[in-house]
Amino acid sequence: MPVNQTYKDNVEKQKIILDCDPGHDDAVAIMLAGSSPAIEVLGITIVAGNQTLEKTTINALNVCQHLGLDIPVFSGCDRPMIRERKIADDIHGETGLDGTHFDPLTKKAENKHAVQFIIDRLMASDGDITLVSTGPLTNYAMALRLEPAITTKIKQFVLMGGSYQLGNVTSAAEFNIIADADAAHVVFTSGRKVVMIGLDVTRKVLCYPSIVERMGKADNKASKLFVDLMNFYNHSQKEVFGWDGGPLHDPVTIAYLIDPSVVTAKAMYTEIDIRSTQSYGRTNCDYFGYLKKESNSYVGIDIDVDKFWNIIEDGIKMYK
């Protein structure tokens, strides 16, 4: 059944704040969230990660302008809470969105800082806002520290990050977590529901050339952007990891919100390693329940690959 049909009778859209660091796969997450009839994006908050804050902010504005998305964009933290900044220019290039060209940018970021927007929007809410993260968790962690009263206002966190198996920056750690593991620690110990969609899942949705060709057939502004972005992304992923298709990490968070059955998740106790040298940033997930601790997260362990690509295709086709 098409995604649009599944949700056509929904009375209410899911309200989300999307915190990201665009990023090729973040751009596709924005694309998917912005077109979904199941989701209302209250704001896009930006963090440094895949590139510097200035560049990731420009990238978010460019994607929204190109797709005609009337969503406010808020620039946030330009570095981790404690550690030195880490960027992923080996994957995403000099701009963070290499491989495509945008029209001259006229859309502007809001004057309010992202952290303050998160606080203000949550405090004014009925506790019905999901905080989605596809980058380092700095903005959300800083909001929790600045105004602890927002904690009970958070419906849940849904994040792309971590792994209960292998990392992609070190053998232990995934990029979004190691970029600010202290912030991840704040989120995972917040007491709110955390849905962690990590590399164990996202490495299964490889954007092979056949997928790029399939999405290009929609022949609209979204599909053309997808093709441009994925052609560059696949090239860099091939150089770094040897894959013929790059894993489309970040949109899995949005696909999960659109249709939770796309991801199989398991309740686990997860602890962020913020102390060691060799394994800093590792998400230590107690898969078998050895520690006998109450779970604080739902960790993605599998994904319906065909269903995921159907959701992506439906989202792209929503654009003109």
From TrEMBL:
**Boundaries of every Inosine/uridine-preferring nucleoside hydrolase domain copy:** 16-310
Please provide the record's keywords in A-Z order: Glycosidase, Hydrolase
The record, for InterPro entries, names: I/U_nuclsd_hydro_CS, Inosine/uridine_hydrolase_dom, IUNH, Ribo_hydro-like
The UniProt entry's GO biological process terms, in alphabetical order, are: purine nucleoside catabolic process
* A GO molecular function held by the record: purine nucleosidase activity
Alphabetical GO CC annotations of the entry are:
cytosol
Q: Which PANTHER family match?
A: INOSINE-URIDINE PREFERRING NUCLEOSIDE HYDROLASE (PTHR12304), URIDINE NUCLEOSIDASE (PTHR12304:SF4)
Please report the name of this protein according to its UniProt entry. Ribosylpyrimidine nucleosidase
Species this protein is from: Anaerocolumna aminovalerica
Origin organism lineage: Bacteria, Bacillati, Bacillota, Clostridia, Lachnospirales
